[in-house]
C-alpha cells in the first residue's frame, strides 16, 4: 500500500493539498467565511479529479485493478486527512480540548479494505471516546457536508467504542464493517482500542456463528442475482464468482482465524500458496474490470451489460481470433476467473462448514458438527461417507486407479451424496491423470454414460464435474467451450452451462416434470428407450463446436463421429448422434421461419428427417435446446409451431398425407364451411362462403373460419369499415388480433407499426383477401399477461390503436416515437444485413428472408418496402433471437406469380438491404407512412 501511495504521490502530492488549503485567502477566519468554504471545496474537487485521472491513466499502463482500487483509496485518504486537519485547525479549533474532544476517522466497508472503485460509496466511522460533544458534532458535520458537496456517496456513523461493540454483537453487517475497519486519521489510540476490544469481546467466541451468517448472506445474494455464475451479463461486484464472493471468503478467514490480513491465511493452512496467488490474480482481474466499468460509464455500474462489454474488452487489450471476437475472448476470460473464484470459494467455505459450523434449523444448507463421522461406502474401498458426504479413503485413490476420478461422481449419484471438499481438492490436483488411455477406457466411459443418463442428479453432477475441470479434460473439445459466451442477447448462459442445463431439461422431460407444458415431447420419451443414451449424448454435445470459424453444427457432428466410438457406441448410433448434432437447428428454424401451411415446407423438412424415429429425437433435442437458452426464451407459441411441424411431417412420413389435388381440397373445405353454417339464412350463408379464396380455405382451421364468419357478419351489420377481434391463447402464449379492413397495399406495414408503437411483438401473420375487396389479416403477438382478462384488455387497446391508425386519426411515426421502448444494448451489436429471395422453398410463392439488427418499427418499414415494390404478402413469420431478427415473407407479384426476373430480384434485395442498414428508415417513416394511409 505504501509503495502504491508513493507512486501516486509523484503525480499528486498530499502535502501539496494541505499547502493549497492553508494558503487560501481568509483562512484564519475560515469558520465564518463562505468564500473560504467554496475555496476548500474547489481545491478538494480538483484534487480528486486529478487523482481519478491519474489512477485511470495508470490502470491503462499497468493493467492492475487492485493497484487502481488502492490508488483511488489513497486519494480519498488524503482528502479526508486534509479535510479533517483543516476543520480542526481553522474551522472549529478546540482552544482547551478535554479528554472527550478527540476523534478517530476510520474507514469501514470496502473503503476499510483500502480499495475503492471510481463510483464506490465512502463508508466512514467517526469514532469517539465517550459521548458526542458540540466540537465533535461540528467537525463531523463540516466534513460530511463538504464530502456531500463533492457529490460523493457517503455512508457514515458516529459512535463511541462501547456502542460499536454492542451493535457489532447484534448485527452481522456492522460486525463485518468493524472487522475491516482501517485507521485513516485522528486519534489512533482510539482506533487501536476498538480493534483490540473487538477481537477480545466479539470475535473470540463467535467464529462458527459468523461463518453461518456470512454463508447465509452469500446464498441469499446468489439467489437474488441468479444462481448461475455464467449469466452473460454478469454483476462484477455481487454476482456469483464476483468480487463479493472473494470478500466473503476473506471475511470468514480473517474472522475465524483472527488474522489482520488475508496473506496470513496461508500460514494458517487455509490456503496453499498457489491457491492464494490464484485468488489474488482473480481479484486483480475483477478489480480491473470493475474500475474500467465505472470509469467508462461515469457511475457505479456493476453489471457488465452488452453495450459495455465491447468497450471494456478494448480497454483491456483483447483482440479477435478466428471464431471468437475480442469481446467473446474477454468474456470467456471473465467466466474462467469467475469459475476459479467459485471453485476455491466453495472448497474453502465447505471446509469451514465441515470443521466448525453447526446445523441451524430451517437454514438452507447442512452444517456439520465438529466430530467427524466416517463410514464405509457400499461397493468400494476407495471412497467413504464422511459426515454425509463422499470422500476419498486416502490420498492415493486417484493415483492408484485414474478411473476413480469417474467413480467419485458415479457413487455420489448412486447414493445421493454431496462432495467432501477434501475429495474435490484431491481431484482438482489429480487432473493430470486424465490422458488418452483414460478417455478410451471402457469402464470410465461406461461410468460417464451412467452419470450423464442418470435419472437422479445428472445435471448437478455434470456441473460439479465441469467446475472441477474434469469434464473438459475427459472430452477435450468440451474443454474448449468451457466459460465461452456468445456475444448476443439471445443466449443467457455460457456454452458449457447451456449444454449442462439442456441435459437437465431432458431429464425433466423424461420424468414428466413439465408434462403439461410439453405434452408431446413427454409422451414420445418412452418410445425412444433404445436411443436414450444416444439422445443424452447428442444433447450434451450439440453445441460443442461453438467458437470455431466453420459451421458449429457440421464441426460438432465431426467431433461426435470421433468421440462416440470411444464411449462405446455402435456405428449406427454414432451416425445417429452425428446426424442429430448436424441438424439440431433445422427443426427450430423451419418451425419458426417457414409457412407450415405450405406443403413444400413439410416435404423439404421430411426429406431431411427421413424417418419418424429421427423426427421424434430431433423434436426432443430442439425443445431442450430452446429451453436451455435461458428464462423467457421458450414460450407456448414455439411449442405449438414445433408440434404442428411434427404432426404434419409425421403424416407425410407415414403415408397419411392427402393425395387429393389442391383444387379438390379447396372445394371440400368450402363445402365443410357451408355445412357448418347450415343454421344461417341461405343468402347470408352463401355470401360468407363465397367471400373466401382457396388459400384461406386450405390454411385456416374450420373452427377459426366459423369465428371469422361471425366476426364479418357482426361488422357488416354494424356498418363498420374497420373492425378488430382479439382472442388470447393461454397455452400457446400468444394473442390473436384479427383485422377486417378495406384492402390496401400498406395495410400490414401500418398494422406492424401500430403494434410497434404499443410495444407488442408480432410473431406471425396470415394475410387474406376476400372476394369483396377487403383484407382479413390475422396477427399473432407475444402474450404479456398471465390472466386472460388482462391480456384481452391489452389486445383490445392494441386493436383500437390499429383502427385509429388505419382510419387516419393517429399519426404512426409520432406514435412510434412516443410510445416505443427500444431495447437496451442493441447498439452494441453489429449484424451484417441479409436479404434473400428464393423460389425453391414453395411451389406457389417466392420466399423472402431478411436478417438484421432489430429496432423499433423495423417490421413496419420492411413490409412497407415490400408494398412499395408491388409485392403481395401472403404470410409473414417473424422471429427474434435477442437483438437479431429473421423475418420470412411468402410473396407473389400483383398477378399472383413468383418473382423470377433477375433484375427485379436484385432491385428488391437492394431496397431491403438499405432498409435493414437504416439508410431508408427515415425516408420510409417520414414520407411513406405520412401519406394518406386510410383505406
From TrEMBL:
SMART domains per the UniProt record, alphabetical: HDc (SM00471)
Molecular function terms, GO-annotated: [protein-PII] uridylyltransferase activity; phosphoric diester hydrolase activity
Domain HD: 495-618
Keywords associated with the record: Hydrolase, Magnesium, Multifunctional enzyme, Nucleotidyltransferase, Repeat, Transferase
InterPro entries, A to Z: ACT-like_dom_sf, ACT_dom, HD/PDEase_dom, HD_domain, NT_sf, PII_UdlTrfase/GS_AdlTrfase, Polymerase_NTP_transf_dom, UTase/UR
Regulation of catalytic or functional activity: Uridylyltransferase (UTase) activity is inhibited by glutamine, while glutamine activates uridylyl-removing (UR) activity.
EC id: 2.7.7.59, 3.1.4.-
Region (Uridylyltransferase): 1-378
Catalytic reactions on record: [protein-PII]-L-tyrosine + UTP = [protein-PII]-uridylyl-L-tyrosine + diphosphate; [protein-PII]-uridylyl-L-tyrosine + H2O = [protein-PII]-L-tyrosine + UMP + H(+)
GO biological process: regulation of nitrogen utilization
Cofactor: Mg(2+)
Domain ACT: 736-813, 847-932
Family the entry assigns: Belongs to the GlnD family.
PANTHER family in alphabetical order: BIFUNCTIONAL URIDYLYLTRANSFERASE/URIDYLYL-REMOVING ENZYME, BIFUNCTIONAL URIDYLYLTRANSFERASE_URIDYLYL-REMOVING ENZYME
Its job: Modifies, by uridylylation and deuridylylation, the PII regulatory proteins (GlnB and homologs), in response to the nitrogen status of the cell that GlnD senses through the glutamine level. Under low glutamine levels, catalyzes the conversion of the PII proteins and UTP to PII-UMP and PPi, while under higher glutamine levels, GlnD hydrolyzes PII-UMP to PII and UMP (deuridylylation). Thus, controls uridylylation state and activity of the PII proteins, and plays an important role in the regulation of nitrogen metabolism.
Domain remarks in the Swiss-Prot or TrEMBL record: Has four distinct domains: an N-terminal nucleotidyltransferase (NT) domain responsible for UTase activity, a central HD domain that encodes UR activity, and two C-terminal ACT domains that seem to have a role in glutamine sensing.
Protein name: Bifunctional uridylyltransferase/uridylyl-removing enzyme
Species of the source: Manganibacter manganicus
